[in-house]
Design a protein that fits this description.
This protein is an all-alpha fold and 132 residues long. The chain is built from four helices and no strands. Helix 1 runs antiparallel to helix 2, helix 1 runs antiparallel to helix 4 and helix 3 runs antiparallel to helix 4. The protein is elongated, with a radius of gyration of 17 Å. Keywords: Membrane, Transmembrane, Transmembrane helix.
């Protein structure tokens, strides 16, 4: 039997939706600002959040860290392959955006849909197990 009140459940779902929306904002609209919002939510709301909200907060926090790591790897590859003036820059940039970045956005859209439905979501490969 579910012991959470409807208000608590709705607040948890709203927090899950906010986290997933900030993840997409970070990837597509305002990089950095969205990440600051995710970090703030994770550090201030995670301990008191419902299991659903905690699941989504964990997913977007760690997926954002992975996204940053992949961006660093892409930049390192560009520098290693001849710097930003090299023709190889476009190869690495296009490969990064068509594989890594697009995949992260796709998973974020699925996560947002699941949060809107009030269901947990675990990012493939980089997601942490949820306690739901």
């Amino acid at each position: 039997m579910d012991t959470t009140s409807p208000a608590t459940s709705e607040e948890g779902q709203a927090l899950a939706v906010a986290a997933e929306a900030l993840y997409l904002v970070n990837l597509m609209i305002v990089p950095g600002v969205g990440f600051i919002g995710i970090v703030w939510l994770w550090f201030t709301k995670r301990k008191d959040a419902t299991a659903l909200a905690r699941c989504h907060l964990d997913q977007v926090f760690f997926a954002s860290l992975w996204a940053g790591f992949l961006l660093i790897i892409a930049n390192a590859a560009i520098i290693f392959l001849g710097g930003y003036q090299s023709a190889n820059t476009w190869v690495v940039a296009i490969l990064y955006f068509t594989t890594c970045h697009t995949t992260l956005i796709f998973f974020g859209a699925i996560g947002l849909a699941r949060a809107l439905a009030g269901k947990p979501y675990r990012f493939p490969l980089v997601g942490r197990p949820c306690d739901i």
